[in-house]
Each structure stands twice: as structure tokens, then as C-alpha cells.
Design goal:
The structure holds two protein chains of two kinds. Chain A is built from eleven helices and twelve strands. By secondary structure, chain A is of the alpha/beta class. In chain A, the strands form three sheets. In chain A, strands 6-7-8-3-9-10-12-11 form an eight-stranded mixed sheet, sandwiched between helices. A two-stranded antiparallel sheet of chain A has the order 1-2. In chain A, strands 4-5 form a two-stranded antiparallel ribbon. Chain A is globular and about 70 Å long. Chain B is built from twelve helices and twelve strands. Chain B has a domain of 180 residues: 3-Layer(aba) Sandwich (Rossmann fold). In chain B, α4 packs across α5, α5 packs across α7 and α7 runs parallel beside α8. The chains are: A alpha/beta, B alpha/beta.
């Protein structure tokens, strides 16, 4: 997914492009939770938006259940949009402040004609609210009357209203208080089991991703640098960026922290408008050699199911 | 070690449409030179309002500091005149806020924002101030400082802006820095860099640090002592090791248990703190954590438990069940 960079107010002209997502390949199996992690600007949210077809990729295909979503006509698209839903990061800005909770959850059912009967729709709203751990009477409240954690539960109930198969969760817990995060993580797990859902879980909090996901892809500057099942990625990370990321996360135990040799990775994420040549991580990489500056490393399967885009990793 | 800053019995209230909110309800803690004290708690627990009260930055109305003393180096900050307080803010206590984009002035260059402090509080002439600004940017790890001085905040990355904030806080050699969620808006690798920088400054120059955060990992790595806040009060206080290894307040226990940890095997299920954060307009006379507490009984509804010593020296908790 490449975005044009424009300049000028009266006459807009394209002066460059941002390679927000630059040639990534991955699959998500039915019933699986796939994690997508990386720092801001790595392209993880854009990837999610492409899957939701909120963006149209400049190149490449996204196949959902055997169908290319870019080639769908309007009728197919409408059906597709019922199967795939999204939960956003910020429960404050993703709910319309002028609508009651009940209306917010009922609206997609009405628009898609899933439940044309008003009475039945209301009953379904109450059912969804209690499914998400909220009092069914909250249907008559407005978003501002609720806490952040409760609002996020409303966002989840709204996504479930469509009986989806696949949910893109874009940082669903990072705006919540620590004491509430675990509640929402548990709710997402329960719903996955109960309704056989598949999640794409986009997040920057590695400990939450490890807890929730079966497989994880690590992104950096629009590319996937490492992808593996959760256990092997967290127990034996191979890519130097994954290692740096894991080392940077402080563990909530002072005794463990005192014993850790701690050297944060230097530098910052370069601008995606002007990414480094060769391997995009080479300016910050402790293992970089001359070759890394020229040649872009291709993803290799080093162990079964463990893919790394780094030529220095054996 | 003698305390550099000593907060005693601080009360801050806000009059809101929904009623009177006691955002800070009798908070006492102290910080010594070279020490890092963490204040942990969820949003609305009063951790930031405490810091703003110390700096006398509470907007009045609707807010008001109603009781307490804040002794800094022998003076009560709450009794100073506004011009005296301005001198304290500029040259003795530095502040670093969460969102560097909103706390830097977007229409002034980075250089002007640093030299302003130096000219105002240190009486340096513009040339000397610029030279000092270059030194400060170098100290906080900004490459090409002379070029950066001419840039505006929007031309810098989030991590770079936070470094500038720290440089401004350092400009007049403060003895105390209050950092309110200094790394929450930053990516994890940048967070690590900023925290290392602040810790280094504290260690090398003996600057006292108050770090306000909700990140338990950050606290574990950097804090000497920890204050846990809930509903406007400190519910547990003590050396970091004690708080993490022998937590006594049920809220601290639940909070530590609820976070997934990368250094431990994956759990089948997380163990959350149940219930919702308290509504400060609807507190009764009992323990504020009671509705979410697994140990609560009739006694907890009768009165709010006071902060009392438990376990090893310096460790205290505000819970009737904490003594055991």
C-alpha cells in the first residue's frame, strides 16, 4: 500500500510516496488469532485497513475465503462487510456521542437488513450487551456516561452484531487502564471460543500479543521482518529488531530488572518517505554488515513456520 | 536521607456539574535528592492532580487546594506568592509532560523555547543562552543540536520532542523533576531510551525524580520507592522491591497479577481486577476499593482505612486486611 505525498494548496501535485506497507505476505487460518506488532508507522494499521477495504492496495491481492476482495462487486462487498468487522483503539472517538448505546449497536443490523424487526433488534442488542459483560439496561445510555472499558465493550458488541467470522482488532486495549485491559483481553478470548471467531490482533504491547495470539508477525517500516508461532517468536526471537523490541519491554519485577543487562537500541524509526537502502533496519542494527546497506533481505523460512527477513541470522 | 520535597496531607477539590470531586484526598509523600519515586494508579486516581497541586498549576476555578503543606527545601510552596512560585517552577523544579506536542509551543522554534527559560531565570544574554541550549540538546542525546535549535516542534519526532522537553526541564539545573507519563505516547524502543536518559541524569547529578505512570514495568526498572494511588489516596507505599514482592493492599496485588509478563510462561487466562474504576462523585465513607475487592467485608464499609505500617520498614498500606 503506497500513499502519494502531495504538496501545494491551490494545485496539488504529487511529490513523493509513502510506502506504508511495502510487499508483505501472510495468511490467517480460520479460528486463529494472528498478531501484528511493531512501532508507530510500521504499517500495521494500514494492513488492517487494506483487509477491511478501507484502503485499496496499490499492488497485491487479499484473498478472503477464496475470493479476491479487490475484485468484488457492490453486492459481494456488502456480504463481505458482514463477515468482517473491526474494533478500534479509542473507545472515546469511535462511538457517536449523540447516539444511545442501543442505537449504536442496532444500526449495523438495520443497515444490513439482518434484523428488520425493531422489537427483535432491541432484544438482540440486550443479548449482545450481556454477552459483552454489560448490563442490558445500558442500551438507553449515552457513551459519555460510561467508562473507557465499558465503551470498548460496546465497540465489541457492535462488531458482534453482524455475526462476523473475522474481526480486525486495532489496538483494542492500549487506551484502557491497566486494571481494565485484562478484562477486555479475557472477553475477546471468550468470544473467540464461543463464536468461533478469527482475529487479526494489531498491537504494540508485546506481552498482550504473546498472551492472545497463536502466531505473530513483526513489522518494521512497512515490511514483515519476522513471523512465527507465538511461542517460538517470544522464546527464541531471531531478527535483531524483534530482539531489540523484546529487550526494551520492562518486566514488572524490580529483582528481574536489576539483573538485566540493558542497552536500548539506538536511533529512531526512519521516515517511510525516505527509507534506508537495503535492509530497512540496518542503520539501527547491531549486527549490520556492509551487504545489509545494499541488498534487501528476502524472507526465509529458517525453521518450520519461522520466517525471518535477515541474511545475518543463521 | 533528608527529604527535598515533602507533601503532607494534601487535599485538592474540583467543583464539577456532577458534584464535588475530591481528586486528592489527603496525600503525603516525600522525595530525597537523587531518589526516584514512582506514583502509580489508573486515570482519575489523583496522581497527576497531586503533581499539578505541587506546582500550583491547578486551574482555579474549578479546582482548589484546600489543605496540606508542600515543603520544598524549607519553604511551603503553597504559601509562596505567584512571582516566587514562578521562580521555583523555572529554576528549581522542572516538569515533563506526557504529550510533548501539546506542551511545546508550535509557533516558536525549539531554540527559542529553551533560551527563553535561560534568559528569564538565569539572566543569560542571548548568545550565552544559545550556547547553553546547544549543550543541553547534546546532553539529552540530540544529534546536530545547532540545526535542531532552528526547527519547530512539528519537524521533530515524538521521541525527539520529549528530549527537548527534558532539555527545557534541565535548563536551569533543577533539583527535582516531575515527569507525568513521560513515555506513554512513545514507542517502546524510544521509551527505553528516554527512561535511560532520565535515570542517568538523576544518578549523575543527584536530581530527585517523581515519575507518574501506569506502566508497572517502567516502575520496576527505575523506581526506588513506589506510591500506589486509588481514588485520591495513597493506598500503598514502600520500597519498590517490597511493593512488587510483598504487596499488601488488595488493589496492588490485583494490579500486579493482572498484567501478562514476558518473563513467565504463558498463562491460560489473565486474572483481571474486576469491576470499574470508582466514580469520585459517588464515594461513600467506606474503603473506595471495596466494590472491586475480594476480601471486603462489613468493616470495610464503615470507614476508609488509614495508611499504616505493614511488613518491612518504610512499607505501609491502607487496608484493614493488610496486616496479616
Amino acid at each position: 500500500m503506497h500513499f502519494p505525498v502531495t504538496e501545494g494548496i491551490v494545485r496539488r501535485r504529487v511529490t513523493g510516496e509513502v510506502k506504508a506497507v511495502d510487499g508483505i505476505d501472510f495468511t490467517v487460518a480460520r479460528g486463529e488469532t494472528m498478531g501484528l506488532v511493531g512501532e508507530s508507522g510500521c504499517g500495521k494499521t494500514t494492513t488492517g485497513r487494506c483487509i477491511l477495504r478501507l484502503e485499496k492496495p496499490t499492488e497485491g491481492e487479499i484473498i478472503y475465503d477464496g475470493e479476491n476482495i479487490a475484485a468484488m462487486d457492490a453486492a459481494e462487498m456488502k456480504k463481505f462487510r458482514q463477515k468482517i468487522q473491526v474494533i478500534f483503539q479509542d473507545p472515546y472517538s469511535s462511538l457517536n456521542p449523540r447516539m444511545k448505546i442501543g442505537e449504536i449497536i442496532a444500526e449495523p443490523m438495520y443497515v444490513h437488513g439482518i434484523e428488520p424487526d425493531k422489537k427483535k433488534r432491541e432484544a438482540r442488542v440486550r443479548e449482545l450487551l450481556s454477552e459483552c459483560g454489560l448490563n442490558p439496561n445500558f442500551a438507553d445510555r449515552y457513551p459519555h456516561e460510561m467508562s473507557g472499558g465499558q465503551r470498548q465493550r460496546v465497540g465489541i458488541a457492535r462488531a458482534l452484531a453482524m455475526n462476523p467470522e473475522f474481526i480486525v482488532c486495532d489496538e483494542p486495549v492500549s487506551a484502557l487502564d491497566v486494571s481494565i485491559q485484562a478484562q477486555v483481553v479475557n472477553l475477546l478470548e471468550d468470544l473467540r471460543e464461543k463464536f468461533g471467531l478469527t482475529y487479526l490482533f494489531i498491537a504494540h504491547d508485546l506481552s498482550v500479543v504473546r498472551h492472545l495470539c497463536q502466531r505473530v508477525a513483526v513489522m518494521y517500516l512497512g515490511r514483515i521482518v519476522e513471523m512465527a508461532d507465538s511461542d517460538s517468536l517470544f522464546d527464541s526471537p531471531l531478527h535483531p529488531y524483534t530482539r531489540a523490541l523484546l529487550a526494551a519491554v520492562p518486566v514488572p519485577d524490580p529483582a528481574v530488572e536489576q539483573g538485566r543487562d540493558f542497552r536500548p537500541v539506538q536511533g529512531e524509526v526512519p521516515s517511510p518517505m525516505n527509507p534506508p537502502s537495503g535492509c530497512v533496519f540496518h542503520p539501527r542494527c547491531p549486527m549490520a554488515v556492509e551487504k545489509c546497506k545494499q541488498q534487501r533481505p528476502e524472507p526465509r523460512e529458517i525453521r518450520p513456520g519461522h520466517i525471518v527477513a535477515c541474511d545475518e541470522v543463521r | 536521607m533528608p527529604a527535598l520535597l515533602e507533601i503532607d496531607g494534601l487535599h485538592t477539590e474540583f467543583r464539577t456539574g456532577a458534584g464535588l470531586v475530591r481528586a486528592v484526598d489527603g496525600v503525603s509523600y516525600s522525595v530525597a535528592a537523587g531518589e526516584t519515586v514512582a506514583v502509580v494508579g489508573e486515570s482519575g486516581s489523583g496522581k497527576s492532580v497531586t503533581a499539578l497541586s505541587v506546582m500550583r498549576l491547578i486551574p482555579d476555578p474549578p479546582g482548589r487546594v484546600t489543605a496540606g503543606t508542600v515543603m520544598f527545601d524549607g519553604r511551603d510552596l503553597l504559601k509562596l506568592t505567584e512571582p516566587e512560585m514562578r521562580r521555583v517552577r523555572g529554576s528549581e523544579i522542572g516538569m515533563v509532560f506526557q504529550e510533548p506536542m501539546t506542551s511545546l509551543n508550535p509557533v516558536l522554534t525549539i531554540g527559542r523555547q529553551i533560551t527563553e527559560t535561560l534568559e528569564q531565570h538565569r539572566g543569560l544574554d542571548p548568545r550565552a543562552a544559545t550556547q547553553r541550549a546547544v549543550e543541553l540538546l547534546t546532553q539529552v542525546g540530540i544529534a546536530e543540536p545547532a540545526r535542531r535549535l532552528k526547527q519547530y516542534p512539528h519537524q521533530l519526532s515524538g521521541g525527539m520532542r520529549q528530549r527537548v522537553m527534558i532539555a527545557i526541564a534541565l535548563a536551569c539545573d533543577p533539583r527535582l523533576i516531575i515527569a507525568d507519563e513521560p513515555t506513554t505516547a512513545l514507542d517502546v524502543t524510544i521509551q527505553a531510551q528516554i527512561l535511560e536518559l532520565m535515570k542517568g541524569l538523576s544518578r549523575d547529578r543527584g536530581i530527585a525524580l517523581i515519575v507518574i505512570t501506569h506502566n508497572l514495568g517502567v516502575v520496576a526498572r527505575y523506581a526506588d520507592r513506589v506510591n500506589v494511588m486509588y481514588a485520591g489516596r495513597i493506598v500503598e507505599s514502600g520500597p519498590a522491591l517490597e511493593i512488587y514482592h510483598d504487596p499488601r493492599h488488595p488493589y496492588t496485588v490485583a494490579l500486579l497479577r493482572s498484567v501478562p509478563r514476558l518473563d513467565r510462561p504463558r498463562q491460560a487466562r489473565l486474572d483481571p481486577v474486576e469491576g470499574q474504576p470508582p466514580d469520585l462523585t459517588r464515594l461513600d465513607g467506606g474503603c473506595a476499593f471495596r466494590p472491586r475487592c475480594r476480601l471486603a467485608d462489613a468493616a470495610c464499609a464503615m470507614s476508609r482505612p488509614p495508611l499504616e505500617p505493614v511488613g518491612k520498614a518504610g512499607h505501609s498500606a491502607a487496608c484493614f486486611k493488610a496486616a496479616a
